[in-house]
Design goal:
This protein has about 375 residues and is mostly helical. It is built from 15 helices and no strands. α10 packs antiparallel against α11. The protein is globular, with a radius of gyration of 26 Å. The two termini are about 50 Å apart.
Amino acid sequence: MSKTTPFYTRLAHVLVSIICLFYLAIIGETLLAPLIFAFLFSLLLLPFANFLEKRWKFPRSLSSATVLLALVLAITSIAYLLLNQLSDLTNDLPAFKEQLLATSTTLQDWISDTFNIDNHEQISYINSATTEALSKGTSILGQTLLSVSSVMLFLVFIFLYTFFILLHRRLLLTFLVSLFKEKHSAVVYDVVFNIQYIVKKYIVGLFLQMLIVSVLACTAFEIIGIKYAFLLGLITGIFNVIPYIGILTSLILTVLLTFSTMNSTSVLLVIFSVFLIHLIDSNYVMPKIVGSKVKINTLTALLGLVLGELIWGIKGMFLSIPIIAIFKVIFDRVDGLKPWGYVLGEDDSAPKISVTETEQVLIEKMEEPE
């Protein structure tokens, strides 16, 4: 006679497991973050590596190095475009400063008339704030240089991990299959195949989304006549990869630069154009191009973004959606974890459950407006 584990015991096991996973993720950021990025890049590059090996008879080491070199060149090209535009923006900082001073004079008059704060008090406050900022300039510069070196080291580890994952992919697959009993081998292969397919489709979709949004933003900003329209459009496309938060961040940056160089009408046109681009992206580009067979509901996506930022910062926000998609593939194929897969997906992805007449009445009452 088997005993059923009490609910509070199972709940305690789940909570302890979740806490342990988050704790391990926090203390293991240095190892896990580049490793997960490398895993995603490996899944993206895997079809190209297989093509080189089967079509051109490349050795595995040569095919892995070739596709990795292509990835490095692509990332370097995007970084070069950004840095080239940013250098031109730096040269125009004095002109921006003059425009901001002229605009701030009008703003000071409005503050003085509205809140009865004398202009001299405003200037003294600005000067004190500027002095304090300059006093911290050395430390900020040091932190910036440290951040740049950390990013470079982070990218180096990503590329190294990507190469070795591609090189030893058969060994890693054999290891995963060997962890489970032979009767579960088909399920393991199915999970691996679906993870590869979904993540590859998701990443390719993100690149297409980034390209489309960048083209739309650059075109709109050129029509409005914004200076550095290409830079701001490219930033809008890249930041848009972060759901919900990215488009808002790029809008604030674009509005600030537009405000410092143009009039208020142009600022309103920028806000309207970014809002229109976001509507096109969220209603057509995202569901048609980026959408995959794994549908993640908006609540789960938003919670994933918040948790990702809390754990790993910006890196966590980029990784949250693909990690949730991977977990959903696993949950959907393991009997004991299927409810977790349902809660991650869309409303129409969960199976219909049979309910009694009394339960149906209670459900209808819950859905009725008050």
